[in-house]
Amino acid sequence: MSTVIKNGTVVTHDLTYEADVLIEDGKIIEIGRNLSGTDELDATGCYVMPGGIDPHTHLEMPFMGTYSSDDFESGTRAALAGGTTMVVDFALPSPGQGLHDALKMWDNKSTRANCDYSFHMAVTWWGEQVFDEMESVIKDRGINTFKHFLAYKGALMVNDDELFASFNRLSELGGIAMVHAENGDVVAELSAKLLAEGNTGPEAHAYSRPPQVEGEATNRAIMIADMAGVPLYVVHTSCEESHEAIRRARQQGKRVWGEPLIQHLTLDESEYFNKDWDHAARRVMSPPFRNKHHQDSLWAGLQSGSLSVVATDHCAFSTEQKRFGLGDFTKIPNGTGGLEDRMPMLWTYGVATGRLTPNEFVAVTSTNIAKILNCYPRKGAILVGADADIVVWDPKKEKTIAAGTQQSAIDYNVFEGKKVKGLPRFTLTRGHVAAYDGEMRTQEGHGNFVKRAGNTATNKALSSWKALTSPRPIERSGIPASGV
Ligand SMILES: NC(=O)NCCC(=O)O
Ligand SMILES: [Zn+2]
Ligand SMILES: [Zn+2]
């Protein structure tokens, strides 16, 4: 059995052309004119693009005394509804837990995934066991990305000595370092002071995490990564201070990538000043939403290439869960949803406004991250031999975002009421049509784990440079006799 996508315009990160796409056994087998197959999908008036890849999700994540409400089933269903065909989730060991132990837990949860997925490994504590297991996580499990939290003091946060040790180990093994860049010590101090002064509401979450805490931590991580000789990926870049550090590092030739979220690009800090406690608390996430100055900086970064990827950090908590923080903003579970809305929101606020070209849209939602994570061109490509993870995108299709019609398990949507123009007509996950003109036809358990080998081209380039420039003793003849 084969499927042909007919009469569409193929849009990739570098090309736009009219062609049909023929699929068999989950792969693209031919691209050309006048193709035929057993099943036909009509793409007249549509763009045929690589399915989105969201490299930053937290599905069923244990966090702040509860679990995020979307699991691998509802989360990947939401992804497919919005044109995303692969998610990358974070496996988080609890303190003292081994990396492989934590991965077993994530393996169990992910059996229900409707689309392909991969994992990043989090380094939440440091010791010999973590040092040792990192090797097999990369070589046997095919996980080449390791996240470090510089925030969440007393929980997930690692200190600078641990960060440097882990970055050095990754440099040796050919891994990629990731950071949540906020200065956790300063956030803890500011939070305690705000609470003592009677600032208990959700707006104080934003006051406790000003752009400076993010700028400082981003810059620190960049410098530590540079000394270790490891590539660095900065997650949820939300402000000019952090973007500026990334931009400068890239201009200096450092291997650093920045990832803004669709929430930070399109929602601002005024959400926290809403008189309705629930409204404000539902939008509590770290880093918090910023103002227009920061949003313009992020858009400019995507346009100029100093920022590389748009993600969601999908970590959805219900209103009931958010209310754990009534009377104390530090207890509001941090996180917002966005998996279903990332692509339509970015198209509406990016492509339709002229901030991004359709090719740039494909680059920042799919191809760039496939290259960074080392799964391109299996993912992120419309090429013969690639997985048939495809979105047939109708630029004229419209809807108003509403919690009542979403796939996510929670009872609200941070984009509620936003009108989007540009939606999937069909979303295909390895050839299976999981979203058919608004109707969900997902298959629970269809998703496969995507292995990603370490020692990428970027790792090799960095280690060659490191070897060439590393400190070495100067050979001298005629060493003076000691003493005077
Ligand atoms: N971002 C957020 O507030 N929650 C999810 C965990 C994280 O990425 O920091
Ligand atoms: Zn984070
Ligand atoms: Zn996150």
TrEMBL record:
Sites bearing N6-carboxylysine, chain numbering: K147
Presence of keyword Metal-binding: yes
Single Gene Ontology MF annotation: dihydropyrimidinase activity
Keyword set includes Protein biosynthesis: no
InterPro entries: Amidohydro-rel, Hydantoinase/dihydroPyrase, Metal-dep_hydrolase_composite, Metal_Hydrolase, Metallo-dep_Hydrolases_sf
UniProt enzyme class: hydrolase
Keywords of this entry: Hydrolase, Metal-binding, Zinc
Catalytically driven reaction(s): 5,6-dihydrouracil + H2O = 3-(carbamoylamino)propanoate + H(+)
EC number: 3.5.2.2
Post-translational modification: Carbamylation allows a single lysine to coordinate two divalent metal cations.
GO annotations of cellular component type: cytosol
Ranges of residues in domain Amidohydrolase-related: 47-420
Cofactor section: Zn(2+)
Coiled coil: none
A Gene Ontology BP annotation from the UniProt entry: nucleobase-containing small molecule metabolic process
Pfam families linked to this entry: Amidohydro_1
Entry's family note: Belongs to the metallo-dependent hydrolases superfamily. Hydantoinase/dihydropyrimidinase family.
NCBIfam families in the cross-refs: D-hydantoinase (TIGR02033)
Biological function: Catalyzes the hydrolysis of dihydropyrimidines and of the structurally related DL-5-mono-substituted hydantoins, to produce N-carbamoyl-D-amino acids.
Subunit structure: Homotetramer.
PANTHER family: COLLAPSIN RESPONSE MEDIATOR PROTEIN, HYDRANTOINASE/DIHYDROPYRIMIDINASE FAMILY MEMBER
This protein's name: D-hydantoinase/dihydropyrimidinase
Organism: Planktomarina temperata RCA23
